[in-house]
Amino acid sequence: MGVALATPFKSDFSIDYESLARLVEHQINGGADYMVVLATTSEAVTLNRRERAEIARFVAAQVAGRIPLILGMSGNCTEDLTTHIEETDFTGYSAILSVVPYYNKPSQEGIYRHFKAVAETSPVPVVLYNVPSRTGKNMEAATTLRLATELPGKIIGIKEASGNMEQIAAIISDKPETFHVVSGDDALTLQLIRMGAEGVISVVGNALPAAMSRLVHTALTNPDSIEAARINASLQTLDRALFADGNPSGLKCLLSQMALADDVLRLPLVPVTDKTRAAIAEGLKIALNHNPSAN
């Protein structure tokens, strides 16, 4: 159970390092197996390069080797991204998570060459991230499998958030044994584990790491477990509410309700509506009632 770590902000929109440290400890104490720093949920696109480097170093120091860390590093200019990778200090990080290039909508061959260049440049392994609802371009199963097969040890897995079950099933069926598939969607985690996925990089795990960790580990032990199904059902209302007005707007609202971080985002992201805020509160109540040790 990996957590896509959020970035707390103060009311003046500066980085709230005190809350960030508290959030990191919340993940570790809640049983997260690893954390992903500076991915989508972190609002990385609203952070400048200096801030991203500071956050990466701060989290690595706070974690101090207690659990593995993955660093989000993405871009739609391959040369700029590979240069950034060459200049990055990866001390404390086990891998990078890199999203399909966005906006310029490359072909499958372009996506392949982009990730090949990233993998050949990176001193740590690469986890692919396919989320076409954000990038505007789907990485097809054939491209994922081509990268997994041709670059073993360098490209080690994929966070699949396409929602395309047929595509994900094809990757799981034909992938090399050492290539790992994890869910990029909390609500689909149990279903994907039953198909052969190996876990999740979670959003709701920021707030409820114990519940998500128990769900994932119970399901990995026994995909048909009644307990896993129960936990999954208890989180579905919250999962839906969190994404009603987009991520991480919903998550920031949830973290505020749990007194883990303030409900502050950087533009163009804004807080959720009152309707969604109420739905998140109701989803949290349901989750905690069914998972009393999750908070």
Write a brief structural summary.
The protein is of the alpha/beta class and 295 residues long.
- Enumerate the spans where pLDDT stays under 50 for 5 or more consecutive residues: none
Strand arrangement in the largest pleated sheet: 7-6-5-4-3-2-1-8
The figure for the number of domains is 1
Give the number of DSSP strands. Answer: 8
The succession of helices and strands, N to C, reads EHEHEHEHEHHEHEHEHHHH
CATH domain topology: TIM Barrel
Q: Write down the CATH class.
A: Alpha Beta
In CATH, the architecture is: Alpha-Beta Barrel
CATH superfamily: Aldolase class I
Structural commentary:
This protein has twelve helices and eight strands. The two termini are about 15 Å apart. It has an eight-stranded parallel β-sheet with strand order 7-6-5-4-3-2-1-8. The mean pLDDT is about 95. With about 300 residues, it is an alpha/beta fold. The protein has helices at about 15-30, 50-65, 80-85, 110-120, 130-135, 140-150, 165-175, 190-195, 210-220, 225-240, 250-255, 275-290, and strands at about 1-5, 35, 70, 95-100, 125-130, 155-160, 180-185, 200. The protein has a single domain (about 1-220), classed as Aldolase class I (TIM Barrel, Alpha-Beta Barrel), CATH 3.20.20. The chain is globular and about 45 Å long. Helix 7 (about 165-175) links the parallel strand 6 and strand 7.
